[in-house]
Amino acid sequence: MSQQITGGGNSIPLSEVYWSLVNKADKKFSKIRDLPFYERSRYENYFFKVFKVYTQLWKFQQENRQKLVEAGLKRWEIGEIASRIAQLYYGHYMRTSDAGYLSESYVFYEAILTREYFKEGLSQDLNIANKQLRFLARFLMVCLVLGRREMVHQLVEQFKRLIDECKRTFQETDFKEWKVVAQEIVRFLKSDTAFMNIRPLRYSLVLDPNLDVGTPRASRSLRLTDAILSSYHYNEVKYSELTLDSFRMLQCLEWEPSGSLYQSTGAKIGQNAPTGVTRINSQNMTDPTLPPNPRKAVLYRPSITHFLAVLATICEELPSNGVLLLYLSASGKVGQTSLSPLSARSVTSIEENILRDFESHTIKQERDPSGDTPGLSLRQISEDAVSTPSGLSFGSHGLSGSSCIYPSDLVPFTRKPLFIIIDSDSSTVFRNICGAEKGEPAALLLSPSHTPPLISVDFSRQPSGSLFTIFLTAPVQAFCLLIGINGSDMETDIFLKAEKLLSSFMNEWASTLAASDTLHPVWSQILKDPFLRRLLLRFIFCRAVLALYTPVFNNQQNQPECFPSLPESLVPTAPAVQSAVLQMASVFGATSKFTLPQDITML
């Protein structure tokens, strides 16, 4: 017997009301999924309209569940609604960086998993099997970004088992594309090991030093409000459209929930352990006491037109006290496929069609600064870009076409404060931006054009991303990789000792910067921002370590650069900085791996 809803003299079958809501929600979901990232104001308005419809739909099916089931509603159809709501939450997180939406996405995905919405008919219907695989792939991404590594490993095993079962059940389908997805996440986890996640990459008020930089000598104080993150290398480690380098930088630019959400997991830091830390509170990953995260746009293989549209939109909306961080990691040499043994790409080519399917989850005046080399004009930069390969390739067609980003592409946007990080073998060409800005001097952190050879056999065989990016996001681990320690046999107390020592050095360096009379305003105006300050201090450490590392001692190609220049008291030749490197090396018994330009005693 069909159920009816009566109103205004008309009687409408309850199932018709339900399917009408489903169709309305589906249409709105398709529209918001296809909105480009640079239409942010349009997206904000549309999101709440879509979410309102799905809220109505979810509430309606909850209140009328039994009647709808009697009318023919299947459990997998309920799971489909829950999955769409989880996708909306995750997509909104990716556009706003509000961790609350990420947590809500996890809650809905976890409910789908525990209530087994897609289990009924899984072995008989190929369509339902694909829905379950798609759900697991999306849930994996949410858990990865949220830091739920134990759940990630659990889902990976379930994902692989389901693929094997589907291959046996549906023999006419080879599930090749889903096997590629499984290979990607397995490769990602082999690269992003427990050692690389001993502690959260996010900024933690508990674990990161509470830097008291005093009052910087700056006419204004800026804060990081937005970031664009983009990384592309041929056959690089990634999962879906999130590359390993972008993932680490994404994590590095977020607040870690404070309080007692983390605890140590024992005396050993095993490379094959499921995780380096254990979450105590697994349900609530939000912390209302923390400031909002900077908004981040993660772009994978963007065309230059799409990249510039996103960049222009963010610059247009940047608040008066805001800074935009621009992180670009890509090769700049024709035919170059990797930056270093850390970023060697060794997996066969990947088919993208089904990845694209589940990736819809993301809802898609010149000056001469004192103390620095005078910048080139925009015309000179453009001519240089045309005459020689001097950009970053974000596609498979090399340094040509619509996928190459040149320094001259960024200059028009220097009317707003930019904090630019370039991780590339052609990073040095971007130094020409310094002096060619159109209103605001840009802050530039440039990677070495060559990365030093690594001693660690395990990490040269198993790619782990760019060493420069690791120094900026996990400096102690980067130091260990450089001297040949992969963490499999390291005692936790040794790592913690090194962490504490580096924190003390960073505190000293922050105070030195704040008190300096020669610090360029570009740097002094960002010292109050915890994310940018931490990146700058880690850069100082990275530059000093690579400058004194014996295998590449005095080799400028292995040295990172920053523009404008920092005070002489913090360059690698400064005794206090050299002493810091030696003390870090002594913790690991590796002082012989570093060379000093002059004899000094550890301060």
From TrEMBL:
Any one GO molecular function term: transcription corepressor activity
Record-level GO BP terms: DNA-templated transcription
Top-level taxon in the UniProt lineage: Eukaryota
Pfam families cross-referenced by the UniProt entry: SCAI
Matching InterPro entries: SCAI, SCAI_metazoan/Viridiplantae
The name this protein goes by in its record: Protein SCAI
Taxonomic lineage: Eukaryota, Viridiplantae, Streptophyta, Embryophyta, Tracheophyta
